[in-house]
Amino acid sequence: MSETVQSAIAVEPGGKINPRIILLALGMFALGTDAFVIAGVLPVIAHDTHVTEGMAGQLVTAFALTYGLGSPILAGLASRWSPNRVLVGALGLFCLSNIASALAPTFPLLLLTRILTGCFAATYAPLAYSTGVSLAPAAKRGQALALVAIGLTIATALGSPLGTWVGEHFSWRMSFVLIAGLAGVAFLALLFVGLPKAATPPRLSLRARLAPVTQPRLVLALLPALLWYLGYYVVYTYIAPFLQQNLKIVDISGLLIAFGLGVVIGSWSGGKLADRFGSRRPLLISVGGVMILEAILSLTTHTLFGSLVMLFVFGLVGAIIFIPQQYRLLSLAPEHANVILALNNSTFYLGVAGGAALGAVALRSIAVTQLGWVGAACTFLALLLFILSTRLSKRRAAEHEQHYQDVPSLEPQEMAIH
After folding, report:
1. pLDDT tens digits along 41-82
2. Is the pLDDT of residue 353 over 60?
3. DSSP conformational letter for 211
4. Which residue in 66, 71, 154, 256 could disulfide with 122, CB within 3.0 to 4.6 Å?
């Protein structure tokens, strides 16, 4: 593509959101399909690979744990190269690793390919979010984040149910072939259309990238998120056997469409709400809503209609959380924007990994239909920590404001010394 066309796309006058953000969302669509499709085909994988459903759930743990722990490390290793090259290269390798998953002859090798896939996803996604923020005016930063994340949410609405249907009617291996195809299309689109030229950022050591974690206010902002993601995904990871047992059906792909539609609406609403009301109110309402929904999920999913409604609402309320949380972290430490976004994604995927692992442990002693109570307990703890975190942040902000109100009253000589 010529530089003239590139510059025409790269610059959007009048404070509009740059359309290239859509390309970033296209890559996230492939990642999102991969992240969520295993939950739908988990019983099929367990049967074909001769492992328990709890063990098959560790495919989610392997992917998510690699993503969560690897994100800041891989960001440091990749910082020597152009972000554009890293974005496109990581997506191409992501495509190849999904082909490897489709061809894996044994469960251990399949697990290994999920670890590799998590590495490439962890490299791509934080750069996609930070690039999206840089391409949007300040007043539409929340909407830009939501637009990048909409790739994940559309994948939940369309990609994951489609992958589940393919896995149930053909083979779970074909589900990975589908994901590889989606990633390949996204890779070629980004390669052909291109991204705005970006200077290679200064290299940061791993210690520098993790420096925000040493700040108590950020730790208190990240811990509740870890808990509410853990609570959410202890339920969603095992949603296929959950619904199959409650409804006595095999094909749940249609039900996942209702969940995905809720996620799409919730994700976009999260960006809008963050821009209008800030982060605290949307987070408080949505986290509390998730806790209630998890507590009643097993009681309201014994009919097809009840399951459709509950999955839609569960997806909607849960999806509102992600963007306001990003918005909140950016407001707490805007000087660490890239690192903060990477850490937030790490928190999300560590929660996914923890949820899958906790669910596997819980299934040794309780029925799969009781996992909602485990999720509700985790979300309740998250809500308590979130309230504590916001109160401490308000107190710190009030002390900071009082300090600056006192400064003008000083004499010029005292101000100079101060």
Report:
1. 888 888 888 888 778 888 888 887 887 777 767 766 766 677
2. yes
3. G
4. 71
pLDDT of residue 13: 44
240 within 8 A of 107, measured Cβ to Cβ: no
**Which among 297, 336, 338 has a CA at the least distance from the CA of 315?**
297
Tokens matching residue 391: 């109160």
Strands (E), 145-239: none
Whole-angstrom distance, CA of residue 116 vs CA of residue 86 = 16
- Tell me what pLDDT residue 151 has: 77
What DSSP string runs through 343-411?
Answer: HHHHHHHHHHHHHHHHHHHHTTTS-GGGHHHHHHHHHHHHHHHHHHHHHHHHHHHHHHHHHHHHGGGS-
Angle, helices 160-169 vs 253-277, to 10°: value is 170
Residue type, position 377, single letter: A
The structure tokens listed for 407 are 């400064």
Expressed in angstroms, the distance from the first to the final Cα of the chain is 55
- What region does 410 belong to: left with phi over 0, alpha with psi -120 to 50, or beta? beta
The token pair at 12 is 């959007």
| Angstrom distance (rounded) from CA 292 to CA 269 | 20
* Coil/strand/helix, residue 58: helix
Instruction: Please check whether residue 327 is in contact with residue 279, taking contact to mean a CB–CB distance below 8 angstroms.
Output: yes
Residue pair 3/128 in contact by the 8 Å Cβ criterion: no
Backbone angles phi, psi at 286, to 5 degrees: -70, -40
> Which of 171, 165, 369 shows the shortest CA–CA distance to 254?
165
Distances (CA, A) of 399 to 44, 55, 333, 403: 56, 50, 17, 6
As a whole number of angstroms, the distance between CA 112 and CA 109 comes to 5
Per the listing, tokens 């979010």 go with: 129
Domains and CATH numbers, the chain: 14-197+208-398 (1.20.1250.20)
Q: Give the chain's radius of gyration (CA, Å).
A: 22
**C-beta separation of 220 from 388 below 8 A:** yes
Query: Residues 1-13: what's their mean pLDDT?
Result: 36
Q: Are 373 and 235 in contact (CB under 8 A)?
A: no
Contacts of 249 by beta carbon, 8 Å cutoff, 6+ apart: 243
